[in-house]
Structures are given as structure tokens and as C-alpha cells.
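Technical appendix A lists one of the benchmark inputs used to test multi-chain prediction within the project. The record comprises two sequence entries:
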Amino acid sequence: MNETTPSTIAQKSNLERKIIRRERLSLIAKNKTFLVGAAILSFWIILAIFGNFIAPRGASDQDFEYVSVSPQWKFWFGTDANGQDVLSRVILGTRLIVVMAFTATALGTILGTALGLATGYFKGKFDMVIMRLVEAVSAIPVLIIALLAIAALEGRSPTLTVIVIGFVFTPNIGRTVRAAVLGESELEYVAAARLRTERTRHILFREILPNVLPPIIVEFTVRLGYAIFAIATLSFLGAGVEYGSPNWGSQIAENWGNIYSNIWWPTAFPALAIASLAVSVNLISDSLLEIFEL
Amino acid sequence: MSDTPALEFRNLEVAYTVRGIDREVLRNVSFSIAPGEAYGLVGESGCGKSTAAFAAMRYLPRNGKITGGSILFEGSDIVGMSSQDINNLRHSAISMVYQNPATALNPTIRIGDQVAEVFELQGLSKSDAYAHVEQALIKVQIADPAKVMRRYAHQLSGGMAQRVVIAMALASNPRLLVMDEPTTGLDATVEAEVLDLVRQLRKESGTAVLFISHNLGVIRHMCDRVGVLYAGALVEQGATEDIFSNPSHPYTVGLLRCIPRGGLHKNTDRLDTIPGTPPALGTHFDGCVFADRCALVEDKCRTTQPEMVTVGNSHVARCFHTDKAGSMPRAIDTVTVRVGQNPNRATTGTRLLDIDHLSKAFNQDGHVVHVVNDVSLQVGVGETLGLVGESGAGKTTIAKLILGLYGSDSGSHVVLDGKDLAGTLNKRDVKDVGAMQIVFQNPDQALNRRHSVTRIVGRAVQKLRGMSADDSTERAHELLSGMRVEATLHSARPVQLSGGLKQRVAISRAFAGAPQLVVCDEPTSALDVSVQATILNLLVDLQKQDGTSFIFISHDLGVVRYISDKIAVLYLGRVVEFGDSNRVFQGPHHPYTEALLSSVPNIDGSIRRRIPLTGVIPSPSNPPSGCVLHPRCPRMAGSGVEHLCTSIEPALTEVEPGHFMRCHIPLDQLRTVQTQ
């Protein structure tokens, strides 16, 4: 009697929820930035998964009749000084950089989220000490730290690179998450959870975490762009990946000297690949920022 | 000229475009404001009050548009005016005061420069403008204008900031002033001061005022004529006296009835409610907008739109039943709540909670701030203790200390049912935690927006009662249904519920652990009055059925008076008066209580002499010597004990049986001066 019949409210609110969800989806679907970014990124992800079946030749196949030939019908992207097909090497190089970038960013996001949740929730001295450390680490450029770490650990494995980049990203992601958690932990639902004797772990992961997901998702995409760039740069510098494996950074490193002989294709196509992958991820993060209204 | 109204709305229709569809927010609204008149628009949230205010400035949000009718300012239509002309009007003739002074002022510009800007816009040179600022600030009774001019917005108190905003609005000597809830965020005593100021300025300048408020008491005190808005339609209009003494639209009648007025008490009176909820934005009506919630509804109300009917001298109401509205049947929700069995109940006596010498000091940038100072209070079984005081008095901190959300300072004791509880939450037993729960002010923040209603309540049952997940879900559904949150809503997220329903979920959660004491921290201040009444009724039912005790925090003295058995008045973290609700309200009062009570605008229209509190609340980091009230005390001068007031802090003493006060002035002397 006292409120409008609840079933109508429920219907109304369900409808409303559907409308809001549809609206958000349509926002995404209408967002050209997102669509372009998503299209390019899916293209690279498909290549990363099915590259073996798509690439016309193997990564190390050499054809000495065709050394450094320019793009033509038989070799769309031309061949390099070793007679290797540039197109095939670009396609086969996709998987490594995509997998490395995603795992490194995921690692950084997981560690950073944990750090941000803890510092933002506990505050106090713990927070202060950790944040000063974070600031100190953030002051040094990512690449330099990564290079130093790889040199110090004398490793050139992708795994090591992923771990190093993940750790290097942790402070920045941690800081973003901490800012969101600081505001969130002041809200009274956290006090309400404490008042039913919830453990801290439950409060952090079940109460607060779901509410700070949007900034974490955006931060993930931003970092993913950086990771692609960092991995490409490290492999260009000869650190980070095994020698001789098909990857875009080393391809550029091996061939850029030939640009002066007007053999631009073995450098240009991997460079274009890096750029388009990084740009696609940045387009997505920009559009998500807009959609989440952060 | 004087016959031309300052502002006239003629059949105004405004719509907002939401998700591609035009939704009506103002429906055929017509009213006019004579020069120098104060016209009040009143109604619940979402009824179109603010839209009307913004329309008067032609300052609608981007998705809003005027779809019909006209707005005349001194006879000329501003709807079709060029933006140049309308800007000129805003510079010279129409001003607006917004609800939140903190956001109306630019935080990066000094107050002086900000006010000077308004004068510069009128063509004054920079130095001339600056000279005018001081005058403008003196006009709004700012004591030390030179000092205020050098400050930034965040360095001003809410009342001071609102004065500055008013000074800016008046700088152009406007002929129309639009005030949108100008005192809503302010404390009672500050609100009273600002309202006094507005009234006085109006007397001096003869400005016409469009005054928007949800607070009927404020409207009654401020306005010559009143219009009542419901769902975007003007349902009743007339002289203030007529509207309040002879309300003729069922909505107005309902609105006036559901307010806890002076003298009503939970033990004797049940609050009226307005059944149902306001319609969603842009709902289309064939008939009367209020038909769905009206007690007098007939078939024709749903099919035919009623015309404005003249009830009395320029008093009109849009209803077929204006003659019956005043005597329409009361709407009382008689559905009783069911909370079910209550295993925690093992009280030994009549005393449930003893708070002894509760203190809390926070460390702020090296300063020690005593937010709560030696507070001792008692709550009996099944009793409600009301905590009143202005913001910063420590009400919420006391609640959090009792619950253990903050640890209290050493020497503090919280004794629940004979058991001295640990200072902080995680050192208390589950049973003791469940025994004391809280209903927060803002259900949007208190309910996790990612969790379903069932999960919010079920989890509390699971943890506090130690039930299995399945059993606790079942119990949660029982509880929720008992609080009249219907089963279809149990899987909903909080965002899908109305404010009242959200607060019912929050109350269900508080009762999940079968509490003996529930702290209600401003549980109804975010709600409309009709919803407030249903929530208060619910709380009273729960108490009667279960003997639950409440600590009820509110700044609304009418609500506190209705629901409380005992009242503690707080000032600067100290209890200045404590006693039976009736005693505290009838007096003799502590001078602070007296000032607080006198500043509340009553809806019954009784004129009470206002006892002003001078100055601002001192900072708790640097409290005054002696009695903390003495720099502002309205009764110290001439009391003969001034030397005591300024040097020694009075103790909380029992001045008559069951009535405690912290004051040097003898009770009889207070009684004499207060009855004069």
C-alpha cells in the first residue's frame, strides 16, 4: 500500500537497468575511437593466435635467390639481407610481443592492485613508507630500470623481461588504484562491513575491489601500450628476447643500417606493426576513459 | 509599471531530452510575482522546483528546452530573447543564489576579487569596483569585510560563504532574486541568520524573490505567497497564510500532515504518510498528476485534468475535491513489521547502555583536536536517545566511538548491558558487535553498489548470527519482507531502488544481528518528508515490537522531538544538556539549547523570538576558556556569573531530577529570563 506496487518498480528498474546497460554498450559501439582501436587490436590478436597458419613461409626460411628484394607479388613486404620473407617474420613476430605485453601488464596490474588496495586502505605509516618508495622508483625511466635489471640478471629470456616490466609497472598502477581506494574506503559500506566482523581481506577484495575496477581497467590498457613500446625497444637494444627469434624490435635492429642503401622495407614494416599495435591500444584506453567518465 | 509583475510564468512547459525522448518536467505552470513580493515554490525532490528556478534565469541544462508557454520578466518575454539581451538582464536585473555556496564560489580567486568582478561587469573600473565590495559585504552583515576579502572560499564557513554569494547576487541591485534552496546545507542557527538577512535586505531593497525550498517551515517564514509543485504541475497556489491554514489540494494536505510537528510524540501519535512514490520523470498523465497517490481519487481524476479552482481570495487549487481535501481521511500505514525471533535479548535491567567519560582526540597536523570531550550518557532498554547539535558538535564521532569504529581515548567506557566493551571493534565479540548496529545517513554510500540487496543483508546475517549461507539468505528474505521490501526487489542492486527503499534495506541490515541498540545517524535527512514519515513509523514499530533502543542523531529538531524519549544537546564535543525529551524542549533550557530551538522555522507559524548566537562555532583545536559557549552565549551578559563563565568550565550537573545541564547560571534565573 505504501510504496508503488513493488513488482512495477522491479519491472521499471529492470527495464532501467537494461536501458543503462544498452546505453553503455551503444556508447561503446558509437565510439569511433574505440571501434578503430578494437579493430586493429583484434587484427593483431588473430595474427598472434593463427600466425603459423597464415604466414606464407617459415620464420627462418631463407631464399638466396631473393636477397633484399623490394616488395613484389611473391614477397609482399620484400625480403631482408638474409633472404628471409619480411611479411612472414612480421606475422610470426606478433605472438611474442602480444603475449609478452599482455602478461607483463597483467603481472603489473595484479601486483599494483594489491599494493594500491593495501596502501589506500591501511593508510598511515605503512602507506607513507611504501608511497615514498614508489615515488623513488617512478622517478627513474622504465627502460633504464628494465635494462639495468636485465643486465644485472644476465638474462635474455622473454620470461625475465616480462617479470621485470611487470615489476616496473607496479608502482604506477599501485598509485592509481590507491587513489581510487582512498575515496572508496571512506564510504560507509566499508564501515558497515567492519560492523559485521568481516576480515580485512574480504573488505578489500569483495567490497572495495569491484568498485574500483573501472580505473584499473583503464590503467591496464594504458600500461599495455607502454609495455608494447618497452618490449619493442628492449628487443631493439638486444635485451629481452632470444637472438634470432622473429620479433619486431630485433628485425628493426638488424636491418635499419640498410635504410641508407634504400632498402627500407625490412625496417619499415615491423616499425609500422609496432606503431599500429601501440596506437590501437592507446585508442582503446582513450575511449574507455571517456566512457567510464574518469 | 507597478502593475506589471516582476516575473510571470504563462503556461510554461519545460522538457528534458533524456535518451532521445522529451520528458516533461514542468507542465502548464502559471504564476506571477509582483515587484517586491516573495513567492515560494515548494515540493518534494524531482517535482521541478529547480527547473523553474533555472527557467526564470533562462539557464536550463543543455538537454532542457522550453516547449511551450512564456516567461515574462517585467512584461517582456525572455524565452525568445537574444543571448546578448538575456545576458544583460542577468547582469543588471535578475540574480540567483544557489544551494551550495561552496561550489558557487570559485576556489582559486580571492573573495574580494570575485565580488569585484560583478561590479566590473557593470562597467565600473577596477578600483571603483573594489571600493564597492566592502560596502556590499557590510550590507550582508559580514563584520570584518577587509579580512574576508583576502580569503579564499574554502576558508569561509558555510554561512559566511552564502552571505558572500548573496552579496554578489545583490551587487547589481537586481529587481528579481532567484534563491534555490539557499539554506539547505546550513546549520539551524546559521540558517536562521541567513534567512533573517534575506528578509531584512528584501525590506530595504524591495526586490522580488522567487524562493525555492523543500522546507515548509522556511517557506512559511519567508514568503508572501506560495505555489505547491507536484510532478511538474502547480497544484495549489495562494497567500502563505491561506495555504498553511486551509490547504485545499490533497497533496498539500498530505505534505503538511506528514511532518513531525511540535507536540507529536511516537508514544501517542503515528505520522501520516503519502502513499506511493512520486512519478518518474516525464510520466504522461491523462488526468490529475496526483491521482495515483490521492485518498480522494475518483474515476474522473484519472481521465480528466482538473482545472484550477478558486478556493478563496486568490487561493487556487487544481483539484475536483478542494472542499473535501482538508478533511480527507488520514493516510496511516498500519502494516506492522515482522523482525522475527531475537536471540540476543538477555537484558538484565532497564539500563542498556552506559557511556562513561567518553573522549576522543584526533591528531591533526601536529595539533591535538578534542572532538569528543568527557561525554557520559545512558540509554535505557527500549528507549530512544536523541543527539542534537550543529555540525562539528561531535554527534557522529560519538556514534562511531560507541560502535567501536574509532578507538576511544583511555578512561572512556562503553558498557553494554553490564559488560564493559573493548574500545575497538576487532577486539569485541561477534555477539557484542551484532548487538549494536547503525543506520547511516546516506544509503547510497552505505550500501555497496555492486552487491544485491539479498547479499547485503544476507552477509550480515551470516556473519553476525553465524548461520550457513543458505539459512542466512532465507533469513535475509524474511527480514526484508518484514521491512516491506518485496521479494521482487531482493535481487536488485541499490541503484534500482528509491531512497526510501534503500533506507529500508539499510535498516534490515542493521537488524540482521538482532541488535539491542541501533544508532540512526540522520537516517531521514536525505529523504523527502513523505518518505521520512514512513521510515520514522517503521523505526517506531521496530522499537515497540522488539524493545530495541535507539540513539537517534538528527539536526531536525522536529524529528528528534517526535522520536526521542531522552535528548542530549551537544556543543563542541560536550554534552551541554541532557534529560527527558519533554523537559529539554519545554525548558528551562540551557542557553545553547534555547538558541537552537528558537532558530527553527516552525510550520505552525508561531512567532518565536529568536535568541541569536553571535559569532561562529570555535575550532575544537582551540576551544575558548571557561565555558566553551561563553563567547556566543545569549544569556551570559547580565547573569552576574560572567567571571565564572569566562574562567571555569561548568560541570554537567543535575539541575532538577533527571535533567542535566552544563551551565553556571542557576536554573531559576534561566527560567525567569526565558519566560519573559
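Chain B is about 35% helix and 20% strand. The mean pLDDT of chain B is 89. Comparable benchmark entries are summarised in Table A2.
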